[in-house]
Amino acid sequence: MSVPVPFHDLRREVAALRPEIEAAVGRVLDSGWFVLGEELARFEAAFARYLGLAHAVGVGNGTDAVQLALEAVGVGPGDEVVTVPNTAEPTCAAIAALGARPVFVDIDPETMMLDPEGLAAAITPRTAAIVPVHLFGHPAPMDRILEAAGEIPVVEDCAQAVGARLHGRGVGRWGRAGSFSFYPSKNLGAYGDGGAVVTDDPELDDRLRLLRNYGQRVRYRHEIPGHNSRLDELQAAILSVKLAHLEGWIERRRAVAARYRERIRHPAARHPVEAAGARHVYHLYPLRVPERDRVQQHLAEAGIQTLIHYPLPLHLQPAFADLGYGPGDFPHAEAAAASMISLPLFPQIEEAEVERVAEAVEAALAEVAGP
Question: pTM value?
Answer without folding.
Answer: 0.97
